[in-house]
Design a protein that fits this description.
Blueprint (H helix, E strand, L loop, with lengths): L2 E5 L10 H10 L7 E6 L8 H6 L7 E3 L2 E6 L2 E8 L2 E5 L3 H7 L6 H8 L3 H9 L10 H10 L5 H15 L2 E4 L2 E4 L4 H5 L3 H5 L7 H12 L5 H4 L4 H8 L7 H11 L10 H10 L6 H8 L6 H15 L3 H13 L9
Parallel strand pairs: 1-2
Antiparallel strand pairs: 2-6, 3-4, 4-5, 5-6, 7-8
Helix pairs in contact: 5-17, 6-10, 6-13, 12-13, 14-17
Length: 332
């Protein structure tokens, strides 16, 4: 049985606080089974499933026809969006809401970061793109594996890792594999890890799994601390540099001010945001293909100062917009 709920805010409440709107969405409807359909009115709850899953922030989602499939919390589920309706099966509403951050007031967030015409166009182009709230452990390993790899290659690597070490489950006539828990990877051997395509990442994944499994670092605890504190602790893990740490903080640890910088964001800054810096810094920046640790720190701090507490949302819109070939857009 598929239950139906209209998540539509009444006109008389349209001007109330975002806090109230978030709480209303969180408490609106909790179905007793694991499948439902939501009628989502875009002007009330902006959400685009394809933009959200295709923007490079998350891996191991597979599309079959109109449906997107993935696993979370040891179970498989599917989601689709058609004609303004979201339908999902295999998870309950609180889990769906939590994962896709439907409580985020996207209208207010995009207003807060739209400081110039370039990002305004990025927001318009990908209206409804939301950050997702990933499992911190899977997010950590995902971005350690993402070092020097494209999205497709990372996705393949993680799929092989899940196939080798995860639990096999059947859902909707298809086979899926859950992401392996820390203790499983902590007891793996390097040969098996390398057979998944990890290469030089294999010892980093193994050592990180051992530290997480042994309780040396509690990822959940980092959600409660400050951004800088969380980043400093993550940087102690093998294979975690500044960009990887920022990705983990942004996509799984509630640090929406994090601003990951890769080659696409460097190009974006060089093309659109050089006015943040003095000429001496600019001269050094444009000479390098990558960014030095000092340059990363300065760009990150400047972006957080410019975009504010939702700098991470700004980063994701800019990143996806740049990857789609819009850096040389001649519009002012």
């Amino acid at each position: 049985m598929i239950l139906t709920a209209d998540i539509l805010l009444h006109h008389e409440y349209a001007e109330t606080s975002s806090v109230w709107r978030k709480q209303r969405l969180l408490n609106y409807f909790t179905p007793p089974d694991r499948g439902m359909e939501l009628n989502i009115k875009a002007e009330e709850i902006p959400f685009d499933l394809d933009y959200t899953l295709e923007c490079g922030q998350v891996f191991r989602w597979k599309r079959h026809g109109d449906w997107w499939y993935s696993t979370a919390d040891e179970q498989a589920f599917k989601v689709r969006q058609m004609d303004g309706k979201i339908k999902f099966e295999g998870i309950d509403y609180p889990c769906f809401n939590h994962y896709f951050r439907l409580e985020d007031d996207l209208e207010e967030i995009t207003k807060a970061i739209a400081h110039d015409s370039f990002i305004a166009r990025a927001i318009k182009a990908f209206s409804g793109l939301r950050l997702v709230r990933q499992n911190p452990w899977e997010c950590l390993i995902s971005f350690i594996c993402a070092t020097w790899k494209g999205v497709k290659a990372v996705d393949d690597m993680l799929s092989r890792l899940a196939h080798t070490f995860g639990r096999k489950i059947r859902f909707d006539g298809l086979t899926f594999y859950t992401f392996p828990q820390p203790d499983v990877l902590a007891n793996a051997n390097l040969r098996d890890l390398r057979s998944c395509g990890l290469g030089f990442r294999a010892p980093r994944v193994l050592e990180t799994a051992r530290r997480i499994s042994n309780g040396i670092l509690d990822l959940e605890r980092l959600k409660k601390g400050e951004y800088e504190e969380g980043r400093d602790e993550l940087l102690q893990l093998p294979g975690v540099g500044r960009k990887v740490a920022d990705c983990i903080l942004l996509f799984s640890l509630e640090k929406l001010e994090a601003f990951p910088i890769d080659v696409w964001m460097k190009r974006t800054v060089q093309t659109r945001y050089l006015h943040w810096f003095d000429q001496s810094f600019i001269n050094k920046l444009v000479k390098r293909e990558s960014v030095s640790p000092t340059q990363y720190e300065r760009i990150s701090a400047s972006a957080r100062g410019y975009f504010g507490e939702y700098a991470g949302y700004a980063q994701e819109y800019l990143y996806h917009y740049a990857r789609k070939g819009n850096l040389l857009d001649s519009t002012n």
